[in-house]
Amino acid sequence: MKLYCLSGHPTLPCNVLKFKSTTIMLDCGLDTTSVLNFLPLPLVHSPRLSKLPGWVSKDGTVNLEKELKECAGRVFVDSQPEFCLPERELLDLSTIDVILISNYHCMMALPYITEHTGFTGTVYATEPTLQIGRLLMEELVNFMERVPKAQSATCWKNKEIQRMLPGPLKDAVDVWTWKRCYSMQEVNSALSKVQLVGYSQKVELFGAVQISPLSSGYSLGSSNWIIQSHHEKVSYVSGSSLLTTHPQPMDQSSLKNSDVLILTGLTQMPTANPDGMLGEFCSNLAMTIRAGGNVLVPCYSSGVIYDLLECLYQFIESASLGTTPFYFISPVANSSLEFSQIFAEWLCHNKQTKVYLPEPPFPHAELIQTNKLKHYPSIHGDFSSEFRQPCVVFTGHPSLRFGDVVHFMELWGKSSLNTIIFTEPDFSYLDALAPYQPLAMKCVYCPIDTRLNFHQVSKLLKEVQPVHVVCPEQYTQPPLTQSHRSDLMLELQPPPMPYRRCSVLNLPFRRRYERVYILPELANSLVPSEIKPGISVATVSAVLHSKDNKHTLQSTNVFLPCLVLAPKPLLSGAVPLEAFLATLQKHGITEVKVEETADGHILHLQAEDTLIQLEEDGTHIVCDNNEPLRTTLRDLVLRFLQKL
Amino acid sequence: MPEIKVTPLGAGQDVGRSCILVSIGGKNIMLDCGMHMGYNDDRRFPDFSYITQNGRLTDFLDCVIISHFHLDHCGALPYMSEMVGYDGPIYMTHPTKAICPILLEDFRKITVDKKGETNFFTSQMIKDCMKKVIPLNLHQTVQVDDELEIKAYYAGHVLGAAMVHIKVGSESVVYTGDYNMTPDRHLGAAWIDKCRPDILISESTYATTIRDSKRCRERDFLKKVHETIERGGKVLIPVFALGRAQELCILLETFWERMNLKAPIYFSTGLTEKANHYYKLFITWTNQKIRKTFVQRNMFEFKHIKAFDRSYADNPGPMVVFATPGMLHAGQSLQIFKKWAGNEKNMVIMPGYCVQGTIGHKILNGQRKLEMEGRATSVTLCCPLAPIKLQIVLDVKLQVEYMSFSAHADAKGIMQLIRMAEPRNMVLVHGEAVKMEFLKGKIEQEFNCYMPANGETITVTTNPSVPVDISLNLLKREMALGGPLPDPKKPRTMHGTLIMKENSLKLVSSEQALKELGLNEHQLRFTCRVQLQDPHSDPDTLHRIYTHLKSVLKGYTIQHLPDGTVMVESIVIKVSSSAEDTNTKVLLLSWSYQVKYFQCSYLTDGLYRD
C-alpha cells in the first residue's frame, strides 16, 4: 500500500492511495495562496492601481515594467491571478479510479484533475459538498471572467529572472506549473463525474474495497472517509470539527480500529479560539458602525458566513444595530443562502428540530425577510441604487485579489472610520493587504477556524487508537514563528509518518487475510473435528472461483473428480503404544515384539516380518512389498492421529 | 437451514393498517404500523397480541421501520409504542419524522375531540413516541446492532417515502412501502440497487392496472376544472394535506399561468399551508426539475393559490378549493361539500382512493342521496322543517369526478422494480386479494410469490454461503497455480484447513494450521524393501537406477543426491547390498504418508520395467 502526496498544503490536501489494486485520490485541494503574488483585479478602473510603477532591477539590466508592478516596497505580477495546482507529474492521473471529496473547500482543483488528463473514474461527494462546491467554483470563474485581463505574464517566471526578484516572489516554487482559472464548461464537466453519497453509505469499489463517508462536523456535508476491505482499514480524516456550529456532529467512533489514519486539515489558527474571535468580530463591528464607519468582511460565500449571520442575528438587537444595512454580495449569494436551508439531514440536531416545525433552520431567512440582510450578485445593478452607508458588507474573495471586495477596498481604504475584519484563516492578512498600502482603514484580524486543534486531535487519536498515523510534515514540528510551543505539534507513539509535496510513502502494513465465501453445498459437506476445546478443524478441498475480486469455494464433485485429486492432509498427535497394540490384536496381529528405544518403541510384527517404529512425532512402517498389509497398518495408525 | 419468516398483521390481502413482521437471522423487525381508515373498532389497529399476549413488545422486536407518513402506515405507532409498550428504536426518514406527528395529532383530534372516543392515544403519547424515532438518511447504512443493518432507498409516492433493505449476514429482505416508478410533477421515481434480496415485499395496490399515461390524466383533469370554471361553477378537490395536494397545486398553478385565468384557487388553511413549507425545506426529496430550479423559482411558492377562509365558500362566482380531508369523512372538505352539493354547476373531483363507509366512497359509487347528521345549513334540504340536530338527507346534484392521481406502482412498475432488485422470492401485500392473484400468476413464471393473509406466516428457506477468512498466502498460491490469468472454464482447486474458533472461520494451509494451533506434526513414513540382482557396486547400482528412472519417468523431478540417495519427487531410494550376497541388492524405498499413491505405483512400475 502506497500514498502519493500531491499537495504540500496541510489544509488543502491532495493524496493518492493505492490499496488492493485500486487507486483512490483523497481530496483535490487547490492552493490559492499563490494569488497573493498578483495585483488585484478591480471591477471598475482604478487610477491608483494603474499608476503603480513598473519593476526594473536595481542595475537596470532587467526591465519587466509591463509584467511587474511595485507597491509599498512589494512587487506584484500584473496578470490574471494563477493557482498552484496539485502535483501532476508524480503519477499518471488517468490511472485514478475514484476521487473522494471531503468538503467543498477541498475540491477546488477538481477540474484540473478530471479534465484533459485522461481521467475516466468517478468522484464521490455528498450532496451539500457538490452543490456548495459548485457555487464556490462558479463564483471563482465569475470573479475571473467578468474582469478579463488580456495579459498573461510569463517572463518573470524565467528562472534567471525570478532569482533576481525581491521576496516573496523570488521564493515562490514551481511557478511554471501555476495555472489560470478553469472555465465554467470545465467545471460542469468535472462535476458531472460526481456520484452522490450519504453519510455511512457503503460503496463497493470493484469488489475489492469499500468506501464510506462519515460526518466530520466541519461544514455542510463535510466528511471523513473510511476505506476498508474485510481485514484492513484506512481512515482519512480531513477538515473535522468538534465545535457545535451548524453541521451534523463529527462521527468519531467509526474511526476506531484503523490500521492507518491519514490526518489532514487541522486548524490553521491553533492559538485563536473561535468563540473569542466571534466575540471580537461583533464588538469591532459594532464599534465601527457606531462611529459612523463601514465594515468590510472578506469571506467565502458559504461556511463560516452562516455562523457569522446567526451570531449577528442575536447580536443586532442587543447592540441596537437594527437599522444598519447588512449586504452580502456575491454572484452566488442568493443560491448559497437558499441552499443552506434545504439540507436538514446534514445539520446539527437543533437545526433539524427547527425544520420539523417547519421553520427554516438558519435565522438568515428572517434577516432577509425583515430586510436587515440584503444580497446582490454584484456591486452593479440594484446594489448601486439601494446602497446606504454606514453599512456592513460581506463579500469575496478573502485573498482581496479579485471579486467585489477589491472595489470596497479602493472605496473605503482611505478613511480611518472604516474597518476591515478578516475572518477567513486561509490568507495572511498582511499579505492580503499589501497591494493596498498605504491604508488608512482599520484592520482587525479575527480568524475563525473551527477545525480540530492539537489538543482535540491528540484526544481523538487516543480514543480511536490507529496503528499508524500519517500527516503533513507541518504537524510534526511547532510552527516556525512559535518554535517553543511543543503543544502545537503532534506527539504520538509511534511517531506519525510525515509527508510533504511529492512524497511517496510505503504504508507499513501487510495484508494477511482475504474474504472467501464457501457455497452452501460445500459447507454442508465439511466434517469438522474438535481438536482442542472450542476449536475445530476441517480439511477443505474445493474449486476456487474468483470474479470481480470476489472469491467463492465450490464443491469439487461438480467437476470431473480426476482434475482435483486432493493431497493428503498433514497429521498431528501421537500413537499410544498400549492402545495401538490392542488395536493390532483386534485385527489378528498378535505376534508383536516390543523393543524400547531412546525416542519410543519399535514393534516387530514377527509373522508379517514388518517393523513399526513408534515415536512421539513420527511413525515409520517398514514392510516389504505387501500392499494390503501396508494399507491396513496405515489405516490403523491414522485412527490415532488428527488430520489437518 | 436458515429461514426468513414474514407475517402480515395488517395489509395482508388488504389495503390499510400496514404492519408486517419479518424474522430474519434471529432478528424480528416490524415494518410499518398503520391504522385502517375503514374501521372504528378494534380492527382499526393491527393485532399486536399476535406478537405477545402479555405486555410490552420491546423484548420481541429489534426495531420498527416506518416507510412513509400516510396514516395507514404509521397511524398505530403511538398506540403500539405507548399503549401496548415498545421502547426500542423506530426508524423513519427525516421528512416522515417531521410530518408524521402532525398527521397523527390531526387524526387524534378528529377521533377524540370530534367523535368523542376514549381509550385513544394522547398528544403526549405522540410526543413520547416520536422521541424514540431515529431519523434515516437515504442510502445510509444504519447498523441497528452488530448484525442487523438497514438501508433506505427513495420510493417516490409521497415526500420522504422510503423503501428499506434489511440485512443480516448474507440474508436480506426489501420492503417497498408504497412506491411509484414514474416521476410525477413533484416527486422522482423509486430506485433501488441490484441488491438481490431473498424476499421482496411489495405493495400491490394497482396490481392489475397498467395505467394510461400521466399526461392524459392531467389533461383530463385540467379540462374538467377549466370547463367548470368557464360555466361559473365551483370546483372542490378533497385532498390529504400532503402529497397529491402539492402535485395538483403545481399542475393548476402552471395551467393558470399559461391560460392567464383569473378565477381564484384556494387551499384550506392550516395543514396545507404548512405542508407547502415542508416541501420547501425538504426540496432535496422532490424531483430533479424542482430541485434544479428552486433557487430561481421555488415551485412550492404559489402565486395563484391563496389561503382559504370559510366565508369564501359563499362567495359568488367560480373558484377552485383544495380542502382536507381527502375522503370527505369530516372537516372542512365535508363542510364545503355540503354547501356546494346542491348546485349542478359545481364539481367535486376525488383525486385518490376512498375507503368504504366514507362519503367519498358513497358518492363515487353513484349514491345521489346522502343521509347525514348535521345542523341546518344553506344546502338544499328535502325536509325544510328539520330540527337543529337531525338526520338530514343531502341531495347530491354537483358533478362527481374520480381521477386517480395516487402514486402507486402499477403492474408494469412492480415488474420494473423486480428487474431492478432481482429478488429470489416475492411477497405481495397492500392490495386486494383478487388483484394480487393476477400479478402472482405473472411473477410465479419466474420465481416463488406469496400473498399471505393477515396473521398468516410464510417461510422462505435461504441458503447463504459462509464467509471465511482465507490466508492471503494460500489464496495467492492457489491463484498462481491457475496461471497468470484466471480462466472461468478452468476451475482451480484449493486445499486447506478450516479452523473454527469461537465465531471466527479461518482457512489456512495445513502447515499454517499446525503452527497456529500449536500442534506438532506427526510424520508417517513407509519403507519398502525391494530385492534386486545386480553385480555392480552400490553406487553404480544407484546410478543405473537413476538413469533408468530418468528415461522411463518423464515429467517427474528425479535427483541424484550426493549423500547416496535418489529422489523421485519426494520418494527416497537407497541401495544396500545384502550381507551374504553382494550381488543381491536391497532397494529401500521410503515415502511419507502425504505422497500421492499413484506416484508410488509409477515408481514401482518404472523400477520393474526392464
Structural class of chain B: alpha/beta
Give the spatial strand order of the biggest sheet of chain B.
Answer: 6-5-4-3-2-1-22
Shape of chain A: elongated
Share of helix among residues of chain B? Answer: 25-40%
Q: Whole-number radius of gyration of chain B?
A: 38 Å
From the 3D structure, determine the CATH topology of the largest domain in chain B: Metallo-beta-lactamase, Chain A
GO cellular component, one term (chain B): nucleus
Domain Metallo-beta-lactamase (chain B): 16-210
Subcellular location (chain B): Cytoplasm; Nucleus
InterPro entries (chain B): Beta_Casp (IPR022712), INTS11-like_MBL-fold (IPR041897), IntS11_C (IPR048662), MBL (IPR050698), Metallo-B-lactamas (IPR001279), RibonucZ/Hydroxyglut_hydro (IPR036866), RMMBL (IPR011108)
Give short descriptive properties of this protein.
heterodimer; A: about 650 residues; alpha/beta; Rossmann fold; 4 domains; seven-stranded mixed β-sheet; about 25% helix; B: about 600 residues; Metallo-beta-lactamase, Chain A; 30 strands; zinc (chain B)
